[in-house]
Amino acid sequence: MTSLTSRTTRVLCASVPARWKSSAVTSLIDEADLDSEWHLARPYSQVPGPKPLPVVGNTWRFLPFIGDYRIEEVDRISKRLYAQYGRVVKLAGLMGRPDMLFLYDADEIERVFRNEDLMPHRPSMPSLNYYKHVLRRDFFGDNAGVIAVHGEKWHTFRTKVQQAMLQPRTAKLYIKSIEETATAFVNRARTLKRANDKQEVPDDFLNEIHKWSLESIARVALDVRLGCLDGDSNSETQKLIDAVITFFHNVGILELKVPFWRIFNTPTWIQFINSLDIITNMTAKHIGQALERLQARGPISSESDSSLLERILAQNPDPKTACVLALDMFLVGIDTTSTAVASILYQLSLHPDKQEKLYQEISNVLPTSETPLTAQCLEQMTYLKASIKETLRMYPVVIGNGRCMTRDTVIAGYRIPRGTQVVFQHYVISNLDKYFPEASRFLPERWLKSCPQEKVHGRTHHPFASLPFGYGRRMCLGRRFAELEIQTVIAKMIQAFRVEYHYEKLQYSIHPMYTPDGPLRFKLVDRE
């Protein structure tokens, strides 16, 4: 009956003159097509995946001792599920949360993104949602930002801030301050490696990269120097970094394991809340100081040398909007960006031929360390961008993202009910030869227009097979700034040093981002 209705609708609509067709008619056609597709699709119960047990479902798989899934090995679990079940896998029976549908098909991911609503719903992070909307509602109110926020409140907030955040020309206004921070990081790295006979940085070098990331965000968001990269940097900045790391580590446990935190205050939950309180209080203090400086200077403006905080205030005088945006930037920007930089440096150290090619490009564009970095310089450094893209293809900082279905949808030929969390498994997808021939090889050249994929491998890559910053209306809000920061610090580091690594090759694990698992004992050889 549904198929007959669909065919009848198309016949009737085809007979209507084009000038009479309205959006209502188009909507009728779309609805009929969707009805037909739903009718022909297989039931949700037939989606393959690990079978849940009575009462405990699949949650037992994440329990210590008896479970076979470890959060630190989600990458390997995801590959295992793909090998066993194919392009779509259902993980049902997770206590306290909806079913998860793992999707390993770039075409299907594109379909989901192309058809998403005006206010798409991401998997909700109930723990952070509870913190913002219940525990600390007195601080956030109805203005809780974009992280763990959905619906009208998310849309209203994002509309207020996205122009300043996502326009490429806006991010380019901050090149000078970002370059200054990158130069300070290079100087810090030089000091650290000179203290070692082997010219190596210390085992905790990732923490130094965290400091660079924190300093960069503070310069962009608040136009303030925290002094993170000074030799005598204060303990407050380290406390903030530690809190961010604790937050990301604990949120994975709270979201995937049995949610005992909903019943009583578990140690993990207490650490999680304490870390968020530290982040909120410390960033609020810096934001408050920045606001006082702006008020002392006079009228708020959005001139080229304005901080992002000032730029937002010029468009929206409500200081809470600017404060919450800055807080979200500190919350999710420190660990993600620094992990990306660590991974890129590590991959370049493992591939000295690629690093040398990158160095030659940088030397041509920036003949000396005193040559100022400009937007035009960055545009010319195509191999730099290709090296970053290739690292994030093979080792995305966040190995997957997703959507919570807001309506019944057909995915991969199955009827997926509203409320299901669809997780796009980008790490597995972007490492498949199906999408990237010779996927296991580090080949930045595959991203160059001057060396198109057609000539190298016979075809171009799928645009939805590697999405390190997401896509669509919920694409990473800080993407433009993150890209600028990463490009700048990598260019400065490779300009200054030949980065080498002379130890056993590191595996990648989720700690809490997807990062090389072990000390980054880089040997930094001065180029000048």
Question: Would you mind describing this structure in some detail?
Answer:
The chain is of the alpha+beta class. Among the domains are: 1-40, no CATH class; 144-380 and 388-393 and 475-526, Cytochrome p450 (Orthogonal Bundle), CATH 1.10.630.10. Helix content is 53%, strand content 7%. The protein contains 20 helices and 10 strands. The chain has helices at 2-14, 23-40, 74-85, 106-114, 126-135, 137-140, 151-166, 168-172, 175-194, 205-222, 235-256, 267-297, 308-315, 319-350, 352-365, 375-380, 382-394, 426-429, 453-457, 479-496, and strands at residues 88-91, 100-103, 401-404, 409-411, 414-416, 421-424, 497-500, 508-510, 514-516, 523-526. A 4-stranded mixed β-sheet has the order 1-2-6-3. The chain has a two-stranded antiparallel ribbon with strand order 4-5. Helix 10 runs antiparallel to helix 14 and helix 12 packs across helix 14 (319-350). The termini are far apart. Mean pLDDT is 85; it is low at 1-29 and 454-458.
Which secondary structure elements does this structure contain, and how are they paired or packed?
Blueprint: H1 2-14, H2 23-40, H3 74-85, E1 88-91, E2 100-103, H4 106-114, H5 126-135, H6 137-140, H7 151-166, H8 168-172, H9 175-194, H10 205-222, H11 235-256, H12 267-297, H13 308-315, H14 319-350, H15 352-365, H16 375-380, H17 382-394, E3 401-404, E4 409-411, E5 414-416, E6 421-424, H18 426-429, H19 453-457, H20 479-496, E7 497-500, E8 508-510, E9 514-516, E10 523-526
